[in-house]
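Per your request, structure below.
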């Protein structure tokens, strides 16, 4: 068995362990989404049929469990974060013009952009119903702040479209907001509701933010390689939409003036160009792009691991499984490319 398979199987075991809490989370979300509008039934059906990796709910369960907390409380908190994720993806698939998510047609593909946006709004209401039902005012405030970060991340991403002078720091600021901030809150709130003190909660925040950054970099790598066979969503769309993600930014910084003209030409074509493009492939090989990506990911992984070493009274086994899993995803994509 390869190391990658071992990591994937370990995640499946954590999934199995928390299966009933994850079912409860999904049931809570679907109950909130019931409506007289028939399109909401289709959304519920789709969410039931294809739940995705459910990393945010798994984080809640593992953190509650790792502190010896009451796992039933984790399911409701998980429903808040999973709803934020679902709402954001409904809107994101409109923005990115995607037809496929989790191997199912997107709501914009089925009903058009207008209905998909409204379904996102319906989930938006569910987020606040669920958060308010937890009777923790700080949680409602933090959810609001985090959603603002998500929106800002998407707005900044639009601002940097087709701008090859975007810095890697600008890119990191975008992905912190659009992806890492929600995982950050997920970890922070789980620690706080497990009764941990402010210092420990801050450490968990750091774990979530570093993990989330790796998560988005791996997703961007998959989009760039167009090679992740089993995540079942549209790939190669980033560059077609003008989103110059980390692999492109690294190449743009490595290459000489002549190569830069070639890369910029490809970027400006509005096509899902990626590693399947011979000139992109040749530059990626020449500059050992995969290794440069791994170096960047490793920076964030080391920071996340340092957090787990700092929190001594916590059983971090499952958090390490998540970290190894996301790293193994990168390697799996690289092997398949
Ligand atoms: C996926 O990125 C998108 C996000 C992580 C955030 C989307 C956020 C918004 C649309 C702001 C609105 C928020 C709410 C809560 C309504 P991606 O396109 O790189 O990933 P993908 O490959 O999964 O599509
Ligand atoms: Mg998208």
């Amino acid at each position: 068995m390869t190391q990658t398979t071992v990591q994937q199987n370990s995640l499946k075991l954590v999934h199995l362990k928390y299966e009933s809490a994850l079912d409860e989370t999904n049931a809570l979300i679907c109950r909130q989404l019931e409506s007289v509008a028939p399109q909401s039934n289709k959304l519920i059906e789709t969410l039931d049929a294809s739940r995705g990796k459910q990393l945010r709910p798994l984080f809640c369960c593992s953190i509650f469990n790792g502190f010896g907390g009451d796992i039933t409380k984790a399911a409701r908190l998980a429903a808040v974060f999973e709803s934020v994720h679902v709402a954001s993806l409904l809107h994101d698939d409109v923005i990115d013009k995607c037809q496929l998510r989790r191997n199912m047609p997107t709501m914009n593909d089925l009903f058009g952009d207008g209905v998909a946006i409204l379904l996102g709004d319906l989930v938006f209401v569910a987020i606040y119903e669920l958060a308010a039902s937890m009777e923790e005012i700080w949680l409602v405030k933090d959810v609001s702040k985090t959603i603002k970060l998500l929106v800002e991340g998407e707005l900044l991403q639009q601002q940097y479209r087709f701008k090859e002078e975007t810095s890697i720091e600008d890119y990191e600021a975008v992905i912190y907001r659009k992806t890492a901030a929600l995982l950050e809150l997920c970890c922070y709130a789980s620690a706080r509701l497990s009764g941990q003190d402010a210092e420990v909660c801050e450490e968990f925040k750091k774990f979530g933010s570093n993990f989330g950054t790796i998560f988005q970099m791996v997703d961007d790598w998959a989009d760039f390689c167009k090679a992740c066979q089993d995540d079942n969503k549209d790939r190669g769309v980033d560059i077609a939409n003008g989103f110059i993600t980390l692999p492109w930014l690294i190449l743009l910084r490595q290459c000489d003036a002549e190569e830069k003209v070639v890369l910029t030409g490809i970027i400006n074509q509005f096509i899902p160009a990626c590693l399947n493009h011979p000139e992109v492939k040749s530059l990626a090989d020449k500059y050992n792009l995969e290794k440069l990506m791994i170096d960047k990911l490793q920076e964030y992984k080391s920071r996340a691991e340092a957090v787990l070493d700092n929190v001594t009274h916590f059983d971090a086994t499952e958090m390490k499984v998540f970290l190894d899993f996301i790293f193994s995803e990168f390697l799996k994509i690289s092997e398949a490319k």
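The CA atoms of residues 66 and 315 lie 5 Å apart.

Regards,
D.
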